[in-house]
Write a structure and sequence with these properties.
alpha+beta; Beta-lactamase; 6-stranded antiparallel β-sheet
Length: about 475
């Protein structure tokens, strides 16, 4: 699962996850400005690490055909300094690499974008007959009609191979006719990765090594963490960074790439059409062009930052966060990667500052979003705990006032304190709804969402204890009265 709560209605204790935001494009910045120096970028990033209080960060900035600055800041969970070569999980940023792998096969004539996927993958058989019309293009554009809510994601993600993953989709249906609606769904890119294996004649990881990473000189990059092993990432729990092991998650084509800042620099240069090219120019353009159904292309979204048109993709795991962007009009490329995950994503704010610098503007200093979010949740948690203690201490008084009240009235009085219990029971369902039907488990909610989960849990326990003590006191009081 590559998903992250990036906004928070703290008063209601509900979180929201936008995975890909594609606002309407506006005119690109036309003025010519001097390239920011490596020293200026370094100073901004050092200050950003301090203002965001992130444990570690790895960043690269490219311009035209060269790397302007690539460096690491902070430390990993073993206390080692982060460098430009430190392995980082980039989550859904992997989708742009998967799209590139598919396009190399298109250029080789091994597949075509508009052929049905089922023709190539015998195991791709869904319960919905419309699935037979899903093409390779639909997968990469995220317009296949497949959505998280129409397939058994738990069964698919329990598979150990891409072939098994695709076969587990057999009971799934479509939310829309292929090519008519956009829906961000990791399934599309896992099926695309399996297509790479079949058409490429080797494992997905090996294919990327030979046809994408190798030709671009990305020697520190791989699919999965067995070849290139990153350290444990962090979760923020009320502003305290706790090292956590990334849970097992099936993310070959949708989120399995491990890379570093130096390698990402080579990737961004190539994506901007400079340096070594591994697909034809028209194929690169196809990857970057919106589908017509949405602003999403093939592993790239389109948005406007400070008036600059960017192609971007974000990636969110349970303990790592990343974002990449290229500005085709100016030739800049940016990648920000962190070995942490919290309720608020600081990588985009750091990226925004880098874009401002490329435009000759003074960047706003990022930070504060996560700290304030967790401060509010911490206060909510303390308040809930305090109300629970107060309710327990006053339970005898409460029972004494209502000893003679009818059962219905007493029940109505108890319901409000039990509302947090109901919310906790519905918590995964509520988050799943806010995340467009994506499957959410209790275990997953103990990672970057830990502060929110703790707030819900403390409020629920406080309410339950208060309700139970009130009713016990009431029953005991009535028993005493009836025995006289």
């Amino acid at each position: 699962m590559k998903r992250k709560l990036a906004g928070l209605a703290a008063g209601a204790c509900l979180a929201v996850l936008p995975l890909v935001v594609s606002p309407p494009a506006s005119a690109a910045v036309a003025r010519t400005v001097a390239e920011p120096s490596a020293a200026a970028i370094d100073a901004y990033l050092a200050d950003s690490l301090e203002s965001t209080a992130l444990p570690g960060m790895s960043v690269v900035v490219t311009h035209n055909g060269r790397i302007v600055h690539a460096a690491g800041y902070g430390h990993d969970s073993a206390g080692r300094p982060i460098t430009a070569e430190t392995p980082m999980r980039v989550a859904s940023v992997s989708k742009s690499f998967t799209a590139m792998a598919v396009m190399t096969l298109v250029d080789d004539g091994r597949i075509t974008l508009d052929e049905p996927v089922a023709r190539r993958l015998p195991e791709f058989r869904m319960a919905d007959p419309r699935a037979r019309a899903i093409t390779v293009r639909h997968l990469l554009n995220q317009t296949s009609g497949i959505s998280d809510g129409t397939v058994d994601l738990r069964a698919a993600e329990s598979a150990t191979t891409l072939s098994g993953y695709v076969a587990a989709l057999g009971t799934g249906t479509l939310a829309a006719d292929p090519g008519t609606r956009w829906a961000y769904c990791n399934v599309n890119y896992e099926v695309a990765a399996r297509l790479v294996e079949v058409a490429g004649g080797m494992s997905f990881g090996e294919y990327l090594k030979r046809r994408v990473f190798g030709p671009l000189g990305m020697t520190g990059s791989a699919v999965g963490d067995r070849v290139v092993t990153p350290s444990r990432g962090y979760n923020s729990v009320f502003d305290a960074w706790v090292p956590r092991q990334e849970p097992r998650d099936f993310g070959g084509g949708s989120g399995g790439v491990v890379t570093n800042a130096a390698d990402m620099g080579r990737w961004l240069i190539s994506q901007n059409g400079r340096g070594r090219q591994i697909v034809r120019p028209e194929s690169l353009t196809t990857m970057h062009t919106s589908s017509g159904v949405s602003d999403y292309g093939m592993g790239w979204g389109r948005e406007t930052v400070n008036g600059a048109e960017l192609l971007t993709h974000a990636g969110n795991l349970f303990t790592y966060t990343a974002v990449e962007a290229i500005a085709p009009d100016t030739g800049y490329g940016f990648a920000v990667m962190t070995n942490s995950a919290g309720l608020y994503d600081d990588t985009y704010d750091v990226l925004t500052g880098l874009v401002a610098m490329s435009q000759g503007r003074t960047p706003e200093m990022p930070g504060g979003g996560r700290q304030w979010t967790e401060l509010v949740l911490g206060l909510v948690t303390l308040a809930a705990a305090g109300l629970g203690v107060l309710g327990a201490l006053r339970s005898r008084r409460w029972a004494g006032r209502r000893a003679g009240s009818p059962a219905l009235r007493i029940g109505l009085r108890v319901i409000p304190v039990l509302l947090p219990v109901a919310l906790l029971a519905l918590y995964p369902t509520l988050i799943s709804f806010l995340m467009n039907g994506r499957t959410v488990t209790w275990a997953q909610l103990t990672y970057f969402a830990a502060p929110l989960t703790i707030a819900f849990a403390v409020a629920a326990v406080s309410g339950a204890v208060t309700a139970v003590l009130r009713l016990l006191r009431l029953l005991k009081l009535r028993s005493v009265v009836s025995s006289r």
